[in-house]
Amino acid sequence: MAGVEEVRRGIDVAKRKSEESLSALQKAEQDLEEAQEALAAATEGTGQDDMQQATGMLLDAIRSINDTKGTIQGVVSTAEGYEGRL
């Protein structure tokens, strides 16, 4: 079994990597929001079902990123709680 300091180091690495991932996901979310807005503006009033579908898929991707961010934040919080009990 790993010693307490080794466990803490591992938790710190996991938290740091998770936080880096959150930053990347935030950037991806912003980019997808801009893409969705641009697509919606460019195709406004065309009534093309495929473009409405594409806009909807971008919104789905944004929601998925938000869900993933929530999961990662839960991981970080759980790891911090465990680390605090060491």
Compact overview of the structure:
This protein has 2 helices and no strands.
Structure description:
The chain is built from two helices and no strands. The protein has 86 residues and is an all-alpha fold. It has one domain. The radius of gyration is 19 Å and the shape is rod-shaped.
* Oligomer type: single chain
| Structure annotation, total helices | 2
Order of helices and strands: HH
The structural class is mainly alpha
Q: How is the biggest beta sheet arranged?
A: none
Arithmetic mean pLDDT: 94
Helix proportion: over 70%
The end-to-end span amounts to 14 Å
Overall structural domain count:
1
Radius of gyration: 19 Å
User: Poorly predicted ranges (pLDDT <50, ≥5 residues)?
Assistant: none
Global outline = rod-shaped
* Overall strand count: 0
Content of β-strand: under 5%
Task: Give me the secondary-structure topology.
Elements: H1 4-43, H2 49-85
Helix pairs in contact: 1-2
Q: Which short descriptors sum up this protein?
A:
0% strand, 86 residues
